């Protein structure tokens, strides 16, 4: 019997690879002869590069700018001429040096990483657009790649979403010519438009430290930005991903949007890994209603179901009913809170608790 362990991260506690390792150890404790393969997954957010590396891609470190412009080292993953770029690596909330900076946080660092991948000869870029600190409509990314954003006096705009309200001209004549030869795919589970009540500023701005006044300002700035960069793309599903990076990538770079987990599973060779498997174990930190909206466990379970393979899930906590789990293709869920009711302890001791939890999976399902 073969088991495939394909979880996402437990955010704030364990990486996807650490989750997979703990589950594999727990299954082996009960069934020492069991064949277990680990394939950590991601849906385009934090951990996307790590998942690619675990699947055989090579990690590449490059200099980049953080959300407030400070220099840092970011990573992308490469195999052949395909690069996996994780926006959160350079432009993520966890990259902020201190307090949030909702009005002037920039996606420039993501442009730095894309430029490095282009220079390395990559001709396919998979861009995971989750976990951003910025609401700049992707303007910072485009500026690094050669776009010029000018105010009424012909001066370059400063970084950040708020400055877009002063945009008077967008010059794309110096955009990196290599971009026309590259296939860019966006991996995202976000279907929000660029602006409006369901847009990037109103829905995600508060998570990035934006006050109600900031949200109004950013939304108007994004609306103004769209009138220059591609008004026909502002309402497309995913335009609001990563503070509008999705919009810029589609409108200016010609990127195609795909559900993040579906794209990543294809990239990681998930279908091939399912050959001969009798059970798939997936998971994430919290199984909840967001899981049902295209998060990694739901995507893994759906792919397993397509092959007629049952899927179980492990989690820090589960807030889904048996009916909701079954509807997502998850046969059973096992939560750390079943073993330890204190959430703080669950996070602090996640690995050993997860190994114990895998004993229950082995006993109940194998």
UniProtKB/TrEMBL annotation:
Signal peptide: none annotated. The keyword Transferase applies. Coiled coil: none annotated. Pfam families: Gly_kinase. Keywords: Kinase, Transferase. Gene3D superfamilies: Glycerate kinase, domain 1, Glycerate kinase, domain 2. GO terms for molecular function: glycerate kinase activity. PANTHER family: GLYCERATE KINASE. This is Glycerate kinase. Belongs to the glycerate kinase type-1 family. It is an enzyme of class 2 (transferase). InterPro entries: Glyc_kinase_flavodox-like_fold (IPR018193), Glycerate_kinase (IPR004381), Glycerate_kinase_RE-like (IPR018197), Glycerate_kinase_sf (IPR036129). Its EC number is 2.7.1.31.
């Amino acid at each position: 019997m073969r088991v495939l362990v394909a979880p996402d991260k437990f955010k704030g506690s364990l990486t996807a690879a650490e989750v997979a390792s703990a589950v594999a150890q727990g299954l082996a404790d009960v069934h020492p002869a069991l064949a277990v393969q680990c394939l950590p997954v991601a849906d385009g957010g934090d951990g996307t590069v790590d998942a690619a590396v675990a699947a055989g891609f090579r990690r590449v470190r490059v200099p980049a700018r953080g959300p407030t412009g400070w220099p840092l080292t970011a990573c992308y993953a490469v195999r052949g001429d395909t690069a996996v770029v994780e926006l959160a690596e350079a432009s993520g909330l966890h990259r902020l040096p201190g307090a949030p900076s909702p009005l002037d946080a920039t996606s420039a660092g993501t442009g730095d990483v894309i430029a490095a991948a282009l220079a390395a000869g990559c001709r396919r870029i998979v861009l995971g657009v989750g976990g951003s600190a910025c609401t700049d409509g992707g303007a910072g990314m485009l500026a690094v790649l050669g776009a010029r954003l000018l105010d009424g006096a012909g001066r370059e705009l400063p970084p950040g979403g708020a400055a877009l309200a002063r945009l008077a001209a967008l010059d794309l004549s110096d955009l990196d010519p290599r971009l026309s030869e590259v296939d860019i795919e966006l991996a995202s589970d976000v279907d929000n438009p660029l602006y409006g009540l369901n847009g990037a500023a109103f829905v995600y701005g508060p998570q990035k430290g934006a006050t109600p006044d900031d949200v109004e300002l950013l939304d108007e700035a994004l609306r103004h930005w769209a009138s220059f960069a591609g008004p026909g793309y502002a309402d497309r599903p995913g335009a609001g991903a990563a503070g509008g990076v999705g919009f810029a990538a589609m409108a200016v770079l010609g990127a195609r949007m795909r559900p993040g987990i579906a794209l990543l599973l294809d990239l990681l060779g998930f279908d091939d890994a399912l050959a001969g498997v009798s059970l798939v174990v997936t998971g994430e930190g919290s199984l909840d209603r967001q899981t049902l909206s295209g998060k990694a466990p739901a995507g893994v379970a759906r792919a397993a179901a397509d092959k007629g393979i049952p899927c179980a899930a492990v989690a820090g906590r589960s807030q889904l009913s048996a009916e909701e789990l079954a509807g997502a293709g998850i046969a059973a869920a096992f939560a750390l809170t079943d073993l330890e009711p204190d959430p703080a302890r669950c996070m602090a001791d996640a690995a050993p608790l997860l190994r114990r939890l895998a004993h229950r999976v082995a006993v109940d399902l194998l």
